[in-house]
Design a protein that fits this description.
By secondary structure, this protein is α+β, with helices and mostly antiparallel strands. The protein is 52% helix and 12% strand. It is elongated.
């Protein structure tokens, strides 16, 4: 019979048409969601920029007011530290080894963000001869995460992008890199989860090399607390 099409072929065509229609609808929905998500990320980034600018302007205003009154402006104690391991641990006590493990500093030139409180400050002081640490600024936090940042997914080291961050930290309302930077820099309520998501950063030996690593920074060496001068070391090691 001319023009006869078997029923099986008709069923197959119908199924294929349905699959194509479903795929097209799913693609449109995904494109729509991606556009909405992108707008949300841009709004958040803009909000964070305004917040950072306000913090900086407030600090400038308070310093000027104090100077006008003939007084001094003393900023609050920092909540965030960046810690870099600078020495090996051959022949050291088990306590020091354990603290370095707790800080996730298992290799030389590994770096991590640490929330400062009484417990972590005591831990850092106990291992001061083996680390350099200080208070990073916003630029350093951004550069570390963008240039040296890797995430942890299923106990594996993975490159950071917005999809990975949303998958691992979406339940904490952290869905993009700017959210992650904001949570780390401001030491937000989910700092612990955000910090644990970041794989310990593998930094390079500083350009020009280290000086005397056996002495404290205050004595002309490299070890221990160096305050805001950690930003210069981060720049050398990225």
């Amino acid at each position: 019979m001319p023009g006869f099409v078997p029923e099986s072929v008709l069923k197959k065509r119908k199924t294929q048409a349905k699959i194509a229609a479903d795929k097209e609808a799913a693609d449109k929905e995904a494109t729509k969601k991606a556009a909405t998500k992108k707008d949300e990320m841009l709004k958040r980034a803009e909000t964070y920029v305004n917040e950072y600018t306000k913090l900086e302007n407030d600090a400038i205003r308070l310093r000027r007011e104090a100077k006008t009154k003939g007084s001094y402006y003393v900023p609050g104690e920092p909540d965030l530290a960046f810690v870099v391991r600078i020495r090996g641990i051959i022949g050291v006590s088990p306590k020091v080894k354990k603290i370095l493990q707790l800080l996730r500093l298992r290799q030389i030139f590994n770096g991590v963000f640490v929330k400062l409180n009484s417990a972590t400050i005591k831990m850092l002081r106990l291992v001061e001869p083996y680390i350099a640490y200080g208070y990073p600024n916003l630029k350093s936090v951004k550069e570390l995460i963008y240039k040296r940042g890797f995430g942890k997914r299923m106990k594996q080291r993975v490159a950071i992008d917005n999809s990975v961050i949303e998958e691992c930290l979406g339940k904490y309302d952290i869905i993009c890199v700017e959210d992650l930077i904001h949570e780390i820099y401001t030491v937000g309520p989910y700092f612990k989860q955000a910090s644990n998501f970041l794989w310990p950063m593998k930094l390079s030996s500083p350009s020009g090399g280290f000086g005397n690593k056996l002495k404290h920074f205050n004595e002309g060496g490299q070890a221990g607390l160096r305050g805001e001068k950690i930003n210069g070391l981060i720049k050398q090691m990225i």
